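To: structure desk
From: M.T.
Subject: fold request, one chain
Message: Could you run this one when you get a chance? Sequence is below, nothing fancy, just the single chain.
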Amino acid sequence: MTATTQIPALDLSKPRPEDDAERPSTDSLVSIRNLDVFYGAFQAVHDVSFEVPEHRITALIGPSGCGKSTVLRCVNRMNDLVAGARVEGTIEYHGVDIYSPRVDPVEVRRRIGMVFQKPNPFPKSIFDNVAWGAKINGFKGNIHELVEKTLRQAALWDEVKDKLKESGLALSGGQQQRLCIARTLAINPDIILMDEPASALDPISTLKIEDLMRELAREYTIVIVTHNMQQAARVSDQTVFFSLSEARRGILIEASPTRELFTNPRDKRTEDYITGRFG
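Reply: Done. Structure tokens follow.
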């Protein structure tokens, strides 16, 4: 079965958070087990397993080339779009294996949104940047209310409310990144993946994005890749440290509550990395 239209939409075994407000926020929303990722004959990631708790921020850290972004892109099947990529192991979301042939990858990406390293607004108005994704996903409500709501959630409304018809490309870098976050929120995801979302921004814009992440974690589950250990320490609840094996494969060293990992790491390799001895 190859045609996407023949694959049924993702059938969740649990209700979504807005339907079950009393569910504890520490539940695991995503379980990654024995994940291996290949690009052609090259194995980029080897035997990665960790849990992503709900309504928390999980930071993936480690040296360049250790597979952080590769693992992140597996969580919403973005690696499906890379020629020669192959994913083995299990990633369960609400208990459903998202790599099952019965699962529609487009539905996975709707439930698990992504914000990229470089802001990438569409060459459209600010309003249309936010509204476009919702419309193509079949949104039937008041689109003006949705645009305002998500721009407020992204802490951008007060800055753009009088220029919604202007191009999103005219905004500053930090504003563009918050616009991209609003665009992601407009499709009502469960999870937001962020791949170095502040690396191209100035310090003031970076702090705004970090403050925004903490605010969004009240309603969403966030997984962030960052090279900035101070950023991971400031914003995340859980930190996952990756490194490279002797065969140059990305491997997981440890996953711990952030405070614990930075103050009392269990593995000497983690201690060496966070103290600057390598990496």
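Reply (cont.): The mean pLDDT is 89. Let me know if you need anything else for the meeting.
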